[in-house]
Write a structure and sequence with these properties.
Layout: H1 6-19, H2 32-42, E1 46-50, H3 58-63, E2 71-76, H4 81-88, E3 92-95, H5 100-116, H6 119-133, E4 137-141, E5 146-150, E6 154-160, E7 163-168, E8 171-176, H7 180-186, E9 192-196, E10 199-202, E11 206-210, E12 214-217, E13 222-224, H8 230-238
Parallel strand pairs: 1-2, 2-3
Antiparallel strand pairs: 4-5, 6-7, 6-10, 7-8, 9-10, 11-12, 12-13
């Protein structure tokens, strides 16, 4: 069982024991990276995997398994776009707060699927779908759950105390548990530039470079450009 919330792990273990005593919980962790090692080492039949976690999402965990031939029940806080991708691959899921009847159905289906030995193919299909669906989409854990943002709608990222505020064309900013460095790595092949240690900007959203050392964006925001980055920023803008 992998979930960054300790209370969620404990509650899920209690409910599993109540619903299906034959299922033995052999490991629990709040750390996705540790979860990857545990799955690779212990080779469990069934994994309960939270989708929205810091650093690595549930999909990231699945993608990094040496052999993803394991039955997965995803746990998510929101019934959103991610659920469609999961359903399309016939992989189980439960929505927080966990309803015992839903959990029982998910476990029943998972046990039947184990007999069919179809876990590996389903996992591969899900990862391929997520990869294709997110080619122009950014998968972001937020305060409310799990958001899929169109990259061309993102204006900028702002680092705030280890978190990241994401500004888009489509309304109120989102706050993500990822730090801004994570987004820099995720978007290194796109039109985003780290103009300042706390600001990652979509260059296509830049309106003007001001001599005072600021970028004026299309939405009116003024973003500082560090002196060390000035020339590179101007070169990058000139190449658009």
């Amino acid at each position: 069982m992998i979930d960054d919330e300790k209370s969620a792990l404990e509650m899920l273990a209690i409910k599993i024991g109540k619903i299906e005593p034959a299922i033995k919980v052999i490991a629990k962790t709040q750390l996705p990276t540790e979860g990857i090692n545990l799955i690779n080492e212990l080779n469990p039949n069934l994994v309960f995997l939270d989708i929205t976690m810091p650093v690595l999402s549930g999909f990231d965990v699945l993608a990094q398994l040496e052999n993803p031939d394991v039955e997965v029940i995803f746990v998510t806080a929101h019934n959103d776009y991610a659920i469609e991708a999961i359903q399309h691959c016939a992989i189980g899921y439960i929505v927080k707060p966990i309803d015992e009847e839903d959990l029982q159905i998910a476990i029943h289906n998972a046990l039947q699927n184990l007999e069919k030995k179809s876990s590996l193919e389903k996992a591969r299909k899900l990862l391929e779908n997520i990869k294709n669906d997110t080619k122009n989409t950014l998968v972001v854990p937020t305060q409310k759950g799990f958001s899929f943002l169109k990259i061309d709608k993102i204006i900028r990222f702002e680092g705030v105390d280890g978190y990241t505020r994401i500004h888009t064309d489509e309304g109120k900013p989102l706050l993500s548990s990822y730090n801004i460095g994570k987004f820099f790595r995720m978007l290194e092949n796109h039109s985003f530039f780290a103009v300042h240690k706390s600001h990652l900007v979509n260059l296509y959203k830049v309106k003007t470079y001001l001599n005072e050392g600021f970028l004026e964006l299309q939405n009116g925001d003024l973003i500082p450009v560090s002196k060390s980055n000035k020339n590179e920023v101007l070169q990058a803008l000139a190449m658009l």
